[in-house]
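Retry 2 of 3 after timeout on previous attempt. Resubmitting structure tokens to design endpoint.
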């Protein structure tokens, strides 16, 4: 295999190369925290395939990574649907039980005392889990989460507030204090 000299690359190829080198690890870890190694590799590859095909649509600057996370989120949903269909087919054809994936919480928080957190996260709605994961695991701001989810920052604020409240309820603790910016000055 040969390497094309950087001077021979077109502008889109250079932009994609910079995008890939700059964000591969974050996108791979997004998948890895949610699925097994093989699926994480496949999902990362598919995310960057979508990025190549839609290169002109990708926002620049600090909106690039949230756009990639939004794409990765949709790729992951497709993987899960495909796995579910495959598992159901396997069960129907051979009585083979679908393998139970312990979920990313089991890999991220392996201590015994964290079992209650894993259980509580598992009882949350899918949308609540995702907004908490984007904020806490991926370290995204509410603005970046809005880009990833395709909604407004205000919607993310509401979703995050409700998700944290539900998680606190599942854990049997008080609602975590969250600093809320004042709107329209002092009240």
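Retry 2 succeeded. Sequence:
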């Amino acid at each position: 295999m040969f390497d094309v000299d950087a001077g021979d690359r077109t502008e889109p190829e250079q932009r994609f190369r910079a995008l890939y080198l700059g964000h591969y690890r974050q996108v791979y870890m997004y998948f890895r925290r949610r699925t097994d190694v093989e699926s994480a590799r496949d999902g990362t590859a598919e995310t960057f395939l979508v990025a190549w095909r839609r290169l002109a649509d990708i926002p620049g600057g600090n909106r690039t990574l949230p756009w990639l996370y939004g794409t990765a989120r949709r790729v992951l949903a497709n993987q899960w649907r495909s796995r579910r269909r495959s598992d159901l087919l396997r069960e129907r054809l051979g009585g083979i039980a679908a393998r139970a994936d312990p979920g990313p919480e089991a890999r991220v928080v392996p201590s015994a005392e964290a079992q209650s957190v894993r259980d509580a996260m598992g009882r949350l709605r899918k949308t609540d889990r995702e907004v908490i994961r984007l904020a806490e695991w991926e370290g995204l701001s509410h603005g970046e989460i809005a880009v990833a989810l395709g909604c407004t920052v205000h919607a993310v604020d509401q979703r995050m507030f409700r998700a944290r409240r539900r998680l606190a309820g599942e854990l049997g603790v008080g609602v975590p204090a969250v600093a809320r910016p004042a709107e329209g000055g002092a009240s």
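Attempt log closed. The chain has two domains: 10-100, 102-173.
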